[in-house]
């Protein structure tokens, strides 16, 4: 079986990652938890916010917390599967190898 190819391009994946970052930043407790888990601080996050690695980390953070993912999906009207696709594009990993 061939790995599934994401339907998103890099620009769309980065845009979704930035939306997810905005979602985290809109709630201090969400952002603090992300920063604590990643070891980043607000200044390093600000400096690296538009890099694919940070955006992939943001999406991975959402994917690692189903409740948070579903809240994001509901607030943005973005299907949870799209978050997984975007993260795969940013990391370069085929979707078939993803645990979700």
Key features of this structure:
100 residues; mainly alpha
Task: Summarize the helices and strands and which ones pair or pack.
Blueprint: H1 10-25, H2 28-38, H3 42-48, H4 52-63, H5 66-76, H6 80-91
Helix pairs in contact: 1-2, 1-4, 1-6, 4-6
Question: What would you note in describing this structure?
Answer:
With 100 residues, this protein is mostly helical. 69% of the residues lie in helices and 0% in strands. The chain is built from six helices and no strands. It has helices at residues 10-25, 28-38, 42-48, 52-63, 66-76, 80-91. Helix 1 crosses helix 2, helix 1 crosses helix 6 and helix 4 packs antiparallel against helix 6 (80-91). It is globular, with a radius of gyration of 13 Å. It starts with 9 loop residues before the first helix and ends in a 9-residue tail after the last helix. The model has no long low-confidence stretch (mean pLDDT 88).
Shape: globular
Q: H/E order of the elements?
A: HHHHHH
DSSP strand tally: 0
Our measurement of the CA-to-CA distance between the termini, rounded to an integer number of angstroms, reads 17 Å
Describe the biggest sheet?
none
| Mean pLDDT over the residues | 88
Sheet-strand content, in percent, reads under 5%
List low-confidence stretches. Answer: none
- Helix count, DSSP H or I runs of 4 or more residues: 6
Helical content, roughly? Answer: 55-70%
> Helices and strands: which structural class?
mainly alpha
C-alpha Rg, in Å?
13 Å
């Amino acid at each position: 079986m061939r790995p599934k190819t994401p339907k998103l391009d890099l620009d769309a994946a980065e845009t979704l990652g930035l939306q997810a970052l905005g979602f985290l930043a809109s709630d201090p407790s969400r952002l603090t938890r992300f920063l604590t888990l990643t070891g980043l601080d607000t200044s390093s996050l600000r400096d690296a916010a538009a890099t694919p690695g940070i955006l992939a980390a943001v999406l991975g953070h959402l994917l690692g917390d189903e409740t948070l993912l579903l809240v994001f999906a509901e607030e943005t009207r973005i299907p949870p599967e799209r978050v997984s696709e975007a993260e795969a594009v940013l990391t370069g990993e085929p979707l078939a190898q993803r645990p979700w």
